[in-house]
């Protein structure tokens, strides 16, 4: 990646090139080269995930769904019905101490797994935000460059128009001087 020149850094950022962050230097270099900087941030994250991380994400997706709530409600209702009404000798009689133990263990395992998934999602969101910043910064630089080009073209057109007008005035002056006086 070529180094941004002092002129372009001062022009677009108002600072010296050495004081620019790595992202700003990268964006400035990409803008100077007219290179595309957009990329699929999600793909980079997905390729780095281990089996455990993918499993944690799936547990978090299922654990935060209506399917989980419905399945869990059905299992709890079946447990209670089985141990209160259907079995002569219930394996977990009221107050359902074994059920409480299972629910506590499930919560103790599910909470950290969901937190791991949320932490990964937060890291993914930070990477997305950093990438969005780079894209927005490059777009802003490109827009400012277009404004400069338009200003330059407008200045050239005005100068050409003034030159043309001066030539026309000079021609009219010569014609008036060369014309015979009217009587």
What does this entry show, briefly?
With 183 residues, the protein is mostly helical. Helices cover 79% and strands 0% of the residues. The model has no long low-confidence stretch (mean pLDDT 88).
Distance between the amino and carboxyl termini: 78 Å
Q: How many individual β-strands?
A: 0
Question: Strand portion, in percent?
Answer: under 5%
Identify the overall geometry: rod-shaped
Secondary structural class: mainly alpha
Tally of contiguous helical segments: 6
Which series of helices and strands comes N to C? HHHHHH
The mean pLDDT is 88
Q: Please tell me the total number of domains.
A: 2
Which range best describes the helical content: under 10%, 10-25%, 25-40%, 40-55%, 55-70% or over 70%?
over 70%
| Low-pLDDT residue spans | none
Radius of gyration: 36 Å
Main sheet?
none
Protein name: DUF1003 domain-containing protein
Organism: Paeniroseomonas aquatica
InterPro entries: DUF1003 (IPR010406)
Transmembrane segments: 59-82, 94-116
